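ok here's YtxH domain-containing protein:
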Amino acid sequence: MKKIPMLIAAGAGYVLGARAGHERYEQIKAGAARVRRDPRVQDATQRATDTVKEKAGEVASDAVEAARRQNSMPPAP
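and the structure:
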């Protein structure tokens, strides 16, 4: 008999929590959308994207060179 009240309480908690959780999720989602639309955020995102595109080739060639150096080293004894 002790399991039934516990299951009822758990079910009620789940339902109430799910409602509150969904409402909070929607609030967070709306806030994130406002931040994404902010011109300052869009500008920073564009600058970061441009920097990554600019540096990608350099980083790739550095990685290739490091791999070549690593492969040319004699194995440890």
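+1. The radius of gyration is 27 Å.
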